[in-house]
């Protein structure tokens, strides 16, 4: 019965046939590379602020309208896992609602995501933001921090910084590539700060950047593939980056109950208990004993004596 239900949920990846032949060939080659390395399943988690293009990116990669895209707020409040199968290979992409609301990270949204992910293994994290923005702020740092708190810093070994709206015209003074490197540097810096990397970690953890243009007005090359202003066909390119990250040495993240519970707040202060007792002994108990002794001494010699 369960098998039957699972096979109902994992649909054939028919969206792949939507892509121009050149893209299809490259995608199948990449799936082949994964299968060669004995990987027959890949689970990708998509996270980021609301409205940055997470759901659109899921649909673009799958090649069909699998999840809801909304121009104005009110996303589906729950994560959705899209599963597609192609010649024995299963691709899972988990789309999540934005975790920010009214300028703050929403703990309830995080709880819902955590519960959804229980007993799943995350191979790749797509951390999504827009390329066509000029600022990073404390909110970005909070989102990175929240992701690091859920999965641990290790998640960033398996992350790709995905920048949507990649068909952007840079401001006059910059070339496309200059703008791209400025924007990604600024965001990566926020990731380093928010995830609390130590300086020596920053060299060992290099988070790749993937570019995405979900608009139907995206330019195309002679083979009908959607391309970026620098000429790259972006769908094969981001799937290649995903493949590389999936095949890195670092462990995938298994979401178990312990990870979901996080560090127990009741345990957090426990190491201080001996210190607090010692403090009380020397600075509270001792002085009181001294005062009592002084009083007794005074008592021994009554004033009238
Ligand atoms: P989410 O809230 O992060 O899931 O974002 P959505 O995928 O729902 O997208 C929010 C809005 O931005 C929708 O109107 C999308 O059509 C639009 N959008 C998403 N990605 C892109 C992109 O790469 N380029 C352009 N031009 N619009 C995009
Ligand atoms: Mg969405």
UniProtKB/TrEMBL annotation:
A GO CC term attached to the entry: chloroplast outer membrane
Keywords carried by this UniProt record: Chloroplast, GTP-binding, Hydrolase, Magnesium, Membrane, Metal-binding, Nucleotide-binding, Plastid, Plastid outer membrane, Protein transport, Transmembrane, Transmembrane helix, Transport
GO-annotated molecular function: GTP binding; hydrolase activity; identical protein binding; metal ion binding; protein-transporting ATPase activity
Record: residues binding Mg(2+): 55, 73
Location relative to the cell: Plastid, Chloroplast outer membrane
EC number: 3.6.5.-
Main location: plastid
Biological processes annotated in GO: intracellular protein transport
Binding annotation for GTP: 51-56, 70-75, 165, 213-214
Domain of life: Eukaryota
Keyword Hydrolase: yes
Known role: GTPase involved in protein precursor import into chloroplasts. Seems to recognize chloroplast-destined precursor proteins and regulate their presentation to the translocation channel through GTP hydrolysis.
PANTHER family: GTPASE, IMAP FAMILY MEMBER-RELATED, TRANSLOCASE OF CHLOROPLAST 33, CHLOROPLASTIC
Recorded family membership: Belongs to the TRAFAC class TrmE-Era-EngA-EngB-Septin-like GTPase superfamily. AIG1/Toc34/Toc159-like paraseptin GTPase family. TOC34 subfamily.
Protein name: Translocase of chloroplast
Gene name tied to this protein: TOC34
């Amino acid at each position: 019965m369960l098998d039957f239900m699972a096979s109902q949920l994992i649909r054939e990846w028919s969206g792949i046939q939507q892509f121009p032949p050149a893209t299809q060939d490259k995608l199948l080659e990449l799936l082949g590379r994964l299968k060669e390395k004995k990987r027959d399943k890949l689970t990708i988690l998509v996270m980021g602020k609301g409205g940055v293009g997470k759901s659109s990116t899921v649909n673009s990669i799958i090649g069909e309208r699998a999840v809801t895209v909304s121009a104005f707020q009110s996303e589906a409040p729950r994560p959705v896992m899209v599963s597609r199968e192609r010649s024995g290979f299963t691709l899972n992409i988990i789309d999540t609602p934005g975790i920010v609301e009214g300028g703050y990270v929403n703990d309830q949204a995080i709880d819902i995501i955590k519960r959804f992910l229980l007993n799943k293994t995350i191979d790749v994290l797509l951390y999504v933001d827009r390329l066509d923005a000029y600022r990073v702020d404390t909110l970005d740092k909070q989102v990175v921090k929240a992701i690091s708190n859920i999965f641990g810093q290790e998640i960033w070994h398996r992350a790709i910084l995905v920048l949507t709206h990649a068909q952007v015209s840079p401001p006059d003074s910059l070339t496309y590539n200059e703008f791209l490197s400025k924007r990604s540097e600024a965001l990566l810096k926020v990731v380093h700060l928010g995830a609390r990397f130590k300086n020596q970690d920053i060299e060992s953890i290099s988070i790749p950047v993937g570019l995405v243009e979900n608009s139907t007005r995206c330019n195309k090359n002679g083979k009908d593939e959607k391309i970026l202003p620098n000429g790259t066909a972006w769908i094969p390119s981001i799937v290649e980056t995903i493949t590389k990250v999936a095949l890195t040495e670092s462990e995938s993240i298994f979401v178990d109950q312990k990870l979901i519970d996080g560090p127990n707040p009741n345990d957090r202060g426990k190491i201080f208990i001996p210190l607090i007792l010692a403090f009380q002994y020397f600075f509270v108990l001792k002085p009181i004993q001294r005062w009592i002794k002084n009083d007794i001494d005074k008592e021994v010699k009554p004033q009238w004596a």
